[in-house]
Amino acid sequence: MRPTPRQALAACLLAASVLTGRPAAAQQPVRIGVILPYSGQFADTGAQLDGGIKLYMKQAGDTVAGRKVEIIRRDVGGAAPDVAKRLAQELVIRDKVDILAGFVLTPNALAAAEVSAEAEKLMVIMNAGTSIITTRSPYATRTAVTAPQAAETLAAWAWRNGVRRVYTMVSDYGPGIDSEQMFLRAFREAGGESSGSVRFPIANPDFAVFAQRARDAAPEAIFLFMPAGSQPAAFARAMNDVGLSPRRTRVLGTGDLTSENALKVLGDLALGIITAWNYDWQQDTRLNAAFVRDYREMHGRNPDFMSVGGYDGMHLIYQALRKTGGDAAGKALIAAARGLAWESPRGPIAIDPDTRDVIQTIYIRRVDKVDGEVRNVTLDKVEGVKDPVLARMKK
Ligand code: PHB
Asked: Which atom of ligand 1 is the closest one to the Cα of 305?
């Protein structure tokens, strides 16, 4: 019988290791296929995430457990699941990557998770925030923040701080729907009420229409989710145009809304917005000052949550490879990733051994003026937050 391509490859690798006396894998680089939006409306998020990957490799070097680490970058261009799936397949089949990584946007991560599951490759989600993504491949893990981690924490905080009725406004796709549902569940459990809700499309929403609708509802407070990128600034302008300013109506949201880039564009329009999130460059943690200094030196700007997702994603990969002694098989790497815990620039972080998803501190921040600049100022924090959707699924 003719050997299958896989058997033939295994035979070659075995022969190579017999000849050299070293495991064959030790001679190959570990290849990581990174899929990000490097162009289009989410290009800046891709640049910030990749900035974290590059800084990690500059600091940690490009060799781990005796193997060289090679990054192969692919531009997905935007929310394009078909493209993401094709790129993931090409990376696995043609470029022979061992690991899939990156993923700013949920639809792309969901599509690539199918490839990870089928090809048995570790998948490291460095941003996308819909809870269920990590359930779509047994080899998927996440170093980002899930939208419900932030939304649920914020709902409890809002109730404790006197908010009783909330109008929700979210992007009509994975992380927006997750945020809306988890915010309202926690808020209602505390005793709060919904005073209405709208969902807007992810692609080029006409925010003026939705802002008008929100104003007509005369809300006591608003909860928002929209992806980082160009949307928060357009949204805030539309809200301001109809007289809904965070200074008069409490505006609550996930931290995508007030990321470093959004604050630069929003300026004073952002003052008063309250968000729950995992990272801001101003955070006072043990490692953050050095991280911000090094990131600025390398990239000429401040890091944001995407950057720390990429940075920690690489740390996870390096730590897992150390534990497996350089074995990059999906099964070995995901087993090594379960339960990893380390000190990140964002604070302590761990990979839940049950769900393979991230556990971290969630900070509550308000946008204020500090030294003449518009910044997120930390008001409160909750440690050891797990994704609430996945935690419920496990029960
Ligand atoms: C997502 O699509 O999951 C996503 C994108 C951008 C964000 C957060 C979540 O800022």
From this structure: 10
